[in-house]
Every structure is written in C-alpha cells, then in structure tokens.
Design brief:
Blueprint (H helix, E strand, L loop, with lengths): L1 H32 L7 H15 L2 H8 L6 H19 L3 H4 L2 H25 L5 H9 L1 H26 L4 E2 L7 E2 L1 H31 L1 H8 L1
Helix pairs in contact: 1-2, 1-6, 3-4, 4-8, 4-9, 6-7, 6-8, 7-9, 8-9
Length: about 220
C-alpha cells in the first residue's frame, strides 16, 4: 500500500542519512588527522552507529509482517552478527574500542549500507539505475567476507580482555554447579560466524542472479 511504501521510504531515508553521516565523518577525519583518527573512531561515531544498528532490527519485523519481501534468515544473521559484535564485543570492552579493526568494520558496514539504502529508496519510487543496481547486488560479494574476517579478528582481540575481566562470565551459586565462561562462548560463535558466511554468500549470489539476470536487466531498462 501507499502508506507502507511511504513508511519504508522514510525508514530507508533515516538509515541512509545515518550511515552517510558516519561514512563522510570517517573520511573527513582520516583526511584531516590521518592514522590518529583511526583509534578514536568508536568514540567519535559510535553513538550514531549504535542507533543505526538498533534501528536495523526493524527490518526483521518488516519481513515477518510481509511488507519486505527479503529472505528472513540471511537478513536475521547479518543483523544479529552486527549487534553481537558492536554491543557485546566492542561496546563492552573499552580496550577494544581503540583498535584499528573497529575502524575497518565501520568502514565496510557503512559502505555497504550507503549503497543498499540508496538503492532501496529509489526502488520504493520505481526508479532503477543499472550501475546502482549492479553495485548494490555485487558489492557485498567481496566485502561481506572481508567484514566477517574483521569480525573474527575483533573477537580474537577481545578474548584476553574477557578472560581478564570476566565480563559476561557467570558462575551460579550452590546448589547449582553450572557456569558460563564467556570466552568459550565467543570461540564457539566464531564457528557459527564463518558457517553463516557461507550461507549468506550463497544468498548474495542468488539475489544477484535474480536481479541482474539478462531478462531482469532488459525489463528494468525498459
């Protein structure tokens, strides 16, 4: 309906503005301060980044209620990966926030999202530019694996701090003999992260074929 389409357009616009601000801010800071800006990335743009990622949870709801026709599982995996890395791994450990890997992650995430939300906004209005369509469905194929490697590296960097500070590790009192050692949880999550990468990359190739097949390109040109 027109109302739902307008709502989705406003949502995409909000995300576009947020990610564009982050992406532009990162580039300007790097051009101004050079490598010194990398260690301060989280403190400079972390708040807006967290807001954008929290807002992205709505995309799962959009799919569940049927106003977004994207596949649920790939989108769910991508969103939860970012939420876990950003809020559980980076936000909880101040020592990790100054690592260069945080800047790399933010750059990859925002580059992908600026393109994706630009494409989505124009698509809501029935506007399709072939270069943008190609970029939207092609850019994630090389960049998503790079972001997964950066997420894995961020987890590895954070492990010594989780071990030292005992963050999120739980030991239940007597008579329970059950405890959760969070570094083990993160190590197991690494396996899930790389297994999910294979599934999501396969989905990215499927989407690319569906939208950039010869017939679809001709239809959008016409």
């Amino acid at each position: 309906s027109f109302t739902m389409n307008m709502y989705l357009f406003v949502y995409d616009l909000m995300q576009f503005c947020g990610h564009s601000w982050i992406f532009t801010n990162m580039i300007i800071r790097f051009m101004t301060f050079g490598k010194d800006s990398l260690a301060d990335t989280f403190h400079s743009i972390g708040l807006v980044m967290r807001l954008c990622q929290l807002l992205s949870v709505l995309e799962i709801l959009h799919i569940l209620i049927g106003i977004d026709k994207s596949r649920l599982l790939p989108r769910f995996l991508q969103i939860t990966e970012r939420i876990i890395i950003l809020f559980v791994v980076i936000n909880s450990q101040e020592e990790v926030q100054g690592k260069y890997v945080v800047c790399v992650l933010f750059f990859l995430w925002n580059l992908l999202d600026v393109v994706r939300y630009t494409y989505n906004m124009l698509a809501r209005m029935g506007i399709y530019y072939l270069p943008l369509t190609w970029l939207n469905f092609s850019l994630g194929i090389p960049l998503y694996p790079l972001s997964v490697l950066a997420k894995g590296f961020a987890i590895c960097v954070s492990l010594p701090y989780f071990e030292s500070f005992g963050t999120y590790s739980i030991k239940l009192p007597f008579p329970f003999t059950f405890s959760i050692y969070f570094p083990y949880v993160l190590k197991m999550y690494l396996l899930v992260l790389f297994a999910g990468m294979c599934f999501i990359i396969q989905n990215l190739f499927s989407e690319r074929m569906a939208h950039l097949g010869t017939g679809n390109i001709k239809n959008k040109r016409s």
